[in-house]
Structure formats: structure tokens, C-alpha cells
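idk why but the lab printer keeps eating my pages so im just putting this in chat instead. protein + cobalt (II) ion:
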Amino acid sequence: MLAYNIHHVAIAVESIDDAIAGYESLYNITPISRETVEEQGVSEAMIAVGGSHIQLLEPLTPESPIGRFLSQNGEGMHHIAFAVSNIEAALAHLKSRGAKLIDETPRIGGGGHRIAFVHPKELAGTLVELVEVDHV
Ligand code: CO
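predcted complex ->
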């Protein structure tokens, strides 16, 4: 199996603070990490839920990818991320199947993980992120 877990489901939000307050109030769950990823133009927070996470994404500027997503779609689900143990192998596999890749080679995402995005046209309009993590 190429993807062995859902690493996170990412939600684009106008305000991470407001979103966190909502998750704390309604579900009594709090972030395990917060960071700014300048190269992606986002502030992000990770909320652990079981073996997976909710990733909250707030744009640093309106011109960033998440800023543009919010202005076009409003708040809501932005992508799902699959955990993979070898991102090069996963990308090679997807390429061999003719999948349209947004990232042909991995880049560094939140938490220092190597990540790559797969075009939403490959999965019913769902943007997919691959996250390389140690297989546990
Ligand atoms: Co993500």
C-alpha cells in the first residue's frame, strides 16, 4: 500500500486563533504545534486526532496560494495528506500511472517533512499531499 495513513486533513481558515478556539470549545482538542512556513505563505497549526491530524492553514498574505483559495472558496477543506514511507518511490509510482504532479520532486513542508502535491484532477477535485514520515 502506497499510502498507509491519512497524515492530515487541511482546512483553510481566515484566523487560526478563531479556528483553534472552536476546536477547543467544541471538541476539547488543542494544537500540538504551530509554525510559520514562509515559503508556502502560511501560518499553520496541527491538531492531533487519534493517529491523524487536522492542519489549519491561515494565509500570511492575500496573494499566497491559501489567500487566493480563501478569496475564491471561503473557509473549508483545502487538501488531504497521505503518509508515505518513501516519497521518491511514491512520486515515481504516480508518474508511472500518468498522474499529474504539482511537485515533481519533494520540497520541505511543515514539521520539516518532505512533501509533494498531486493535482486535484487526479482524485475527484481533491488536492492530495504526500508526506514522508517514518513508518511506525
Ligand atoms: Co498539508
